[in-house]
Structures are given as structure tokens and as C-alpha cells.
Amino acid sequence: MLSDLDVIRGMYASFSRGDMGSVLAALAPQLVWTEAAGFPSGGKYTTPQAVLDQVFMRLAAEWDTFGATPQEYICDGHSVVAIGEYSGICKATGKSFNAPFAHVWKLRQGRVVAFQQFTDTALVQQAMR
């Protein structure tokens, strides 16, 4: 069985390849996925399908080359924190952005049961205007 850190590293690698099937497979059937208020998909989602439809599909529709690149991981028990940088180009405006992020992941039996996003949403909003 993969370590919790390996699961999270694998999710970022799958996301960067556009392999949403592998990303979704790492999510528990019921979870609490929290996007920061002010982020385009800000709010809470409780199923992998909701995360796909309301978060990932929206990112694909609104952004060119959207990326989340982790640079550091911190692990404690079944929690993994990824610290990194978002980047992307807003399709509607053509403006690009870079913003730091911290993602807090909680896992149970090798699957994600909670996600909490922290980022500078003002930088994202500036690119969208």
C-alpha cells in the first residue's frame, strides 16, 4: 500500500498530466473538499463527482495551462500539507497569474477524506478581470 505522501504526490502528478481518472480514484466516496472563498470554485464539495464537475471542469473551462506545482510537503500522521504555486492564464482575459498555495490533505486508508485550500485569491481574481 502506498504511503499517504505517495498518494498525494501521485495526485499532483496525475493532475499535471490531465489524468483526472487517477485523481478521482484517490478520493474517498464521501469527503469534504473545501475551496477557498474568493477562488472561482470557492465552497465545499462532498463527492468526487462534485469535485470533478464544480472544480476541475470549471478550471479546464476558464483557464489555459492551469497548474498547481507543489514545492514542499509536510506530513503528520494521516495529514499531508503541500506548499507550492498556482499558475495559469485566464481564457476570458488573457491575463496570467502566479499565487502561492497551501493544501491540507487528510487521508484514511489511502484515500483522501478532506482537502482544504489556502491561497491568495486576490491574485486569481485580478487575472479574471
Q: Which features would summarize this protein structure in a list?
A:
single chain; 129 residues; alpha+beta; Nuclear Transport Factor 2, Chain: A; 6 strands
Number of domains: 1
Apparent shape:
globular
- Secondary-structure-based class equals alpha+beta
Helix content: 25-40%
Would you give the CATH topology? Nuclear Transport Factor 2, Chain: A
- Overall pLDDT, averaged? 96
CATH class category label = Alpha Beta
Q: How would a textbook summarize the main sheet?
A: 6 strands, mixed
The residue ranges in which pLDDT falls below 50 over 5 or more consecutive positions are none
Quickly count the helices. Answer: 4
C-alpha termini separation: 45 Å
Question: What can you tell me about this protein's structure?
Answer:
- The chain is built from four helices and six strands.
- It is an alpha+beta fold and 129 residues long.
- It has a six-stranded mixed β-sheet with strand order 2-1-6-5-4-3.
Concise synopsis of the structure shown:
33% of the residues lie in helices and 47% in strands. The chain has 129 residues and is an alpha+beta fold. The longest helix is centred in the middle third of the chain and has 15 residues, at 48-62.
